[in-house]
Amino acid sequence: MRRHRQSARREPTIALINVVFLMLVFFMVASTLAQPLDPDLKLVRTSELDGRAPPDTLVLHADGQLAYRGEPVASAQDFYAALPDDEGEVVRIVPDEAAPAATLVNLARALRQEGLRGC
């Protein structure tokens, strides 16, 4: 009696190689579709920043509350009324990361109506 010899099944590696190659081509094409940045452009480096707000800024919290020099402010009009004359007409606004953009735009609009401009 002869022994039946078991043949080793080959793995379908050709299909895997084809898929990997197609992914490589896809990522090469996708990366060339984006416009490159201007080569003369130097991006801002923020690694040396303290990560805290300067003391003379109007802080907009995530819930829409305002604060100036650590004290709560009710509205843009109250901020303008309490602003010393020597502060000038430029105000710095530091919004919280989670603050809604609409709130920030409305605040800037209200400050502009009072005669201040953002910096």
Descriptive notes:
It is a single chain. The protein is an alpha/beta fold and 119 residues long. The protein has a domain at 58-118. 35% of the residues lie in helices and 13% in strands. The protein has helices at residues 13-33, 76-82, 101-114, and strands at 58-60, 66-68, 71-73, 90-91, 93-95, 117-118. The strands form two sheets. Strands 3-2-1-5 form a four-stranded mixed sheet. Strands 4-6 form a two-stranded parallel sheet. A hairpin with a 5-residue loop joins strand 1 (58-60) and strand 2 (66-68). The model has no long low-confidence stretch (mean pLDDT 80). Belongs to the ExbD/TolR family.
Give a topology summary:
Layout: H1 13-33, E1 58-60, E2 66-68, E3 71-73, H2 76-82, E4 90-91, E5 93-95, H3 101-114, E6 117-118
Parallel strand pairs: 1-5, 4-6
Antiparallel strand pairs: 1-2, 2-3
Report a brief summary of the structure.
The protein has helices spanning 13-33, 76-82, 101-114, and strands spanning 58-60, 66-68, 71-73, 90-91, 93-95, 117-118.
Order of helices and strands: HEEEHEEHE
Work out the radius of gyration. 30 Å
Main pleated sheet? 4 strands, mixed
Please count the helical segments: 3
Give the end-to-end Cα distance, rounded to a whole number of Å. 94 Å
Secondary structure: helix percent? 25-40%
- Sheet with most strands: strand arrangement: 3-2-1-5
Portion of residues in beta strands equals 5-15%
Poorly predicted spans: none
* Net shape: elongated
Mean pLDDT: 80
Number of strands: 6
Structural class: alpha/beta
Main location: membrane
InterPro entries: ExbD
Organism: Roseovarius rhodophyticola
Pfam family, one: ExbD
